[in-house]
């Protein structure tokens, strides 16, 4: 490979809004046949807002929002930011939290106003939701909203939902990847119903949706695909995507994402526009064709 041609490829990448770690990155891009897309913040904007509040019959909705909002105020997760901001807007200033604990891919725990509060997708609490709240939760998920369970002192008290929007460019990006002969897949820690709704919106097959994956297990999904003989590009934005980005044959980080993701990736998509993934692959194919 002539260094000059690769340098030209790198320069052209910068014009397209792609930062390339080193010219050699373009070589691995060419072999990629599978593109694994993280959902939240990659296919979707990641800017979530609080939607519905479903309190169990004996539960005060204001108290539920106050306790959940207070706890989520201590977390940086996109779901947490939405719950905290929405709660503060609806019920006013939030009380302090003690003994805060973050459980990656699950939710948060802590003590608020003398109660042991949890917010997240903890299965033990979710399984004991009153029937009408469980039904509302399922309906919200089937419409693509993320629903999290709020409980305190060991009792599930209700569900709050947050909505995220699919980026306007995501469906076109998936079409472009297919046109290049690549197989797009969706990977997320979120609920399967929500994940399939997002997949349908952008044109990813339901059997190519891998949902409810814990943050530390995303890297294993990439390894498993590689063991099947695939050459995998991973696109992500979060701290929980960093290991998978580093392990993938090609790691693409959203420039709008976390520093951990950007450091782990081979390429950074400066504007966070997924269509640039196809541009990157086209560019490397063209650059390497020039070299031949
Ligand atoms: P993703 O893979 O989509 O970026 P995560 O692995 O970070 O998602 O989280 C997976 C799921 O865990 C979320 O959809 C949410 O249901 C739950 N969760 C994680 N952190 C929190 C939190 N701080 N508050 C509420 N729910 C949370
Ligand atoms: Mg993400």
UniProtKB/TrEMBL annotation:
It comes from the Bacteria. Coiled coil: none annotated. It is found in: Cell membrane. Belongs to the cation transport ATPase (P-type) (TC 3.A.3) family. Type IB subfamily. This is Heavy metal translocating P-type ATPase. The chain holds residues 419 to 710 of 759 of the full protein.
């Amino acid at each position: 490979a002539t260094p000059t041609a690769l340098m030209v490829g790198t320069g052209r990448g910068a014009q397209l809004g792609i930062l390339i770690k080193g010219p050699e990155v373009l070589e691995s891009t060419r072999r990629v046949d599978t593109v694994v897309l993280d959902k939240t913040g990659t296919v979707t904007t990641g800017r979530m807002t609080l939607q519905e509040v479903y309190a169990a019959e004996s539960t005060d909705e204001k108290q539920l929002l106050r306790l959940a909002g207070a706890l989520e105020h201590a977390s940086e997760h996109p779901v947490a930011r939405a719950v905290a901001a929405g709660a503060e807007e609806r019920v006013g200033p939030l009380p302090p939290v003690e003994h805060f604990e973050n459980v990656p891919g699950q939710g948060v725990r802590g003590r608020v106003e003398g109660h042991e509060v949890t917010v997240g997708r903890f299965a033990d609490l979710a399984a004991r939701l009153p029937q009408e709240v469980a039904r509302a939760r399922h309906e919200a998920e089937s419409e693509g909203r993320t629903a999290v369970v709020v409980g305190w002192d060991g009792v599930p008290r209700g569900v709050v939902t947050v909505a995220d929007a699919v980026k306007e460019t995501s469906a076109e990006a998936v079409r472009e990847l297919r046109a290049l002969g690549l197989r797009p897949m969706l990977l997320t820690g979120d609920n399967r119903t929500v994940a399939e709704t997002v997949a349908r919106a952008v044109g990813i097959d339901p059997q190519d949706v891998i949902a409810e994956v814990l943050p530390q297990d995303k890297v294993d999904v990439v390894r498993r695909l590689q063991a099947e003989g695939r050459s995998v590009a991973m696109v992500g934005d979060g701290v929980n995507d960093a290991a998978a980005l580093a392990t993938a044959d090609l790691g693409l980080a959203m420039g709008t994402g976390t520093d951990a993701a950007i450091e782990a990736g081979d390429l950074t998509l400066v504007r966070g526009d997924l269509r640039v993934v196809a541009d990157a692959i086209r560019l490397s194919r063209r650059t390497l064709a020039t070299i031949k």
